[in-house]
Design a protein that fits this description.
Blueprint: H1 2-25, H2 44-67, H3 71-96
Helix pairs in contact: 1-2, 2-3
Length: 99
């Protein structure tokens, strides 16, 4: 299964996000990283990485759904991937603008 082969990348991305969440919140316990907090309080780089992770996961889940003939679910997951990619591009564009 290709989804299983991609799992280490997903696990690594999740671990990276957890570490970034700890850095921005000053937490020592990875289980306490809170991505449900106010998005305006999160750093832009953490928000960008969360969007990137959601995009990666949505792509993997969409592929799994399509292979299982869950066409509508695959479509919605693909739309989530597209939206996440648009957010990543927006964050990257805003980060490159001079202030």
């Amino acid at each position: 299964m290709s989804a299983i082969a991609k799992e280490p990348a997903s696990v690594q991305a999740r671990d990276d996000l957890t570490a970034q969440g700890q850095e921005s919140s000053g937490q020592d316990n990875p289980d306490q990283a809170n991505f449900d907090s106010d998005p305006k309080a999160q750093s832009k780089s953490v928000q960008r990485e969360v969007a990137r992770y959601i995009g990666q996961m949505s792509a993997e889940l969409s592929s799994m759904a399509r292979k299982s003939d869950f066409d509508l679910l695959a479509y919605f997951l693909e739309m989530a991937r597209v939206e996440a990619r648009a957010l990543v591009r927006k964050f990257e564009h805003n980060a490159s603008r001079p202030r």
